[in-house]
């Protein structure tokens, strides 16, 4: 589908000419649901401590599920940094097991808990396997200023091709659309099989209105939560992230995907291949640790994922 995905959806950035990011710094809560995160926890903590924003305006709210020592490491972080940040809170949460969609039900439960817990701050969801660049908060605050009630950084993900479940799967980016003519729901750049992903060359560095973003690294204005919460997805082609965005859209809130905020996602190595027919192409390798972790979580019934 290429760059036609974004045609007519680019955010007008001219208001930034009069934007002063230092005029006021609102309180922001970084909210993260953890589950057996030991393999990448140190990398996560390293990146969040490098975020460029006044520390006395930043809080951390963590929920922890699983059976490894994630919570012990987080308590060490809390002890070492509590004097530098506004607040650091940690809650151990019992995992929901069995039944349908246990993975999604756990995510929904923890995200809603974090929303309530972090009142009245603006919320920055950062998933435990996302490693945002230092400028993330400043960049997403600009995106919010330009009209993004839900402002998402971009990262790659991998999923099975449901039409070819035994095939190589597909790489996509966390910017989602609904085809207005067909009603088909799809992810940006899931138009090439295997460990390759392409995005329109012209979209790099820009912001686009979309139907949904993932919550991996996403800034959400507190007003959105007045009448919107995370729920179990409406259909099998959706996730709790996109269901949240679509629900928010019915109430007038806008989702913006920020292709100027590319976030590192644990387990993925990205190699730039070059440009072809207006597309920028990347090749990916997927770390075996990510595969083994999923197998382990499924076997233990801690956090069942497909």
How many separate domains? 1
Terminal-residue CA separation: 26 Å
What is the molecular shape?
Answer: globular
Structural class: alpha+beta
Low-confidence stretches at least 5 residues in length (pLDDT < 50)? none
Sketch the topology as an H/E string, one letter per element: EHEHEHEEHEEEEEEEEHEEEEH
CATH fold description: Spore Coat Polysaccharide Biosynthesis Protein SpsA, Chain A
Q: Mean pLDDT across all residues, rounded?
A: 87
CATH superfamily: Spore Coat Polysaccharide Biosynthesis Protein SpsA, Chain A
CATH architecture: Alpha-Beta Complex
Summed up, the helix count is: 6
Helix content: 10-25%
CATH class: Alpha Beta
Q: What percentage of amino acids are in beta strands?
A: 25-35%
Could you tell me the radius of gyration in angstroms? Answer: 19 Å
Largest sheet: 8 strands, mixed
In spatial order, strands of the major sheet run 3-2-1-4-13-6-14-11
**SS elements, strand count:** 17
InterPro entries: Nucleotide-diphossugar_trans
Protein name: Glycosyltransferase
